[in-house]
Amino acid sequence: MAHLGIFIQSLTQISLGVLITSQYDINEILQKIKNKSPFELKDNERSRPSSLRVIISKLYYSLDYEKEPQTSREKVTQLLLYHGQFSLEEIEEIFQSSAKETTSYSIEFLKQHPEVAKTEALKSKEFPDETEWEGVEKPTEIKYIFPHYR
To answer: Crossing angle for the helix pair 47-61 and 88-97, nearest 10 degrees?
Structure first.
């Protein structure tokens, strides 16, 4: 797990602190993950998912999510599973509830789908008024939209 430590440090400089539900700080989140110390959560049904949503949002937006939404999702999931306080099912539920289909493609998607990249490049450069997708359903990419917390 040495690469995990390097990954955490590359996200941001680590600092000590107490996690406060209303004011999450990425440094505090990363420190708690690194130390495997639990996040302070209120004991009610809505607090846990709400807190997890804020944590995921902060981690996700600290990464290169616009260029690599799926890779960013995988990194956040790995970090939280390494920490151990939240289950894969809880993490997946938050990501699924924030998933949006789009045809505004990321670099990651275009690299994985060269036929889409080629069609989009031709459409935007040579034939801006023509669409190669007539008669065929245009591929969509899943991106994740979370609230922004300060």
So the answer is: 70
Give the number of other CB atoms < 10 A from CB of residue 107.
13
Under 8 Å between Cβ of 69 and 95: no
Model-wide pTM > 0.85: no
CB 30 within 8 A of CB 11: yes
Integer Cα distance of 111 and 109 in angstroms: 5
The CA distance from 121 to 130, in Å, is 12
Give the whole-angstrom CA distance, residue 39 versus residue 102: 33
Half-sphere exposure at residue 24, Cβ-oriented, CA atoms within 13 angstroms: 22
* Residue 68 CB-density burial (10 A; 0-12 exposed, 13-18 middle, 19+ buried): middle
Can you tell me the distance from the alpha carbon of 140 to that of 117, in angstroms, rounded to the nearest whole number?
A: 12
pLDDT digits (tens, 9 = 90+) for 79-101: 999 999 999 999 999 999 999 99
Going 99 to 95 to 17 to 33, the CA torsion angle's sign is negative
Instruction: Please check whether residue 85 is in contact with residue 38, taking contact to mean a CB–CB distance below 8 angstroms.
Output: yes
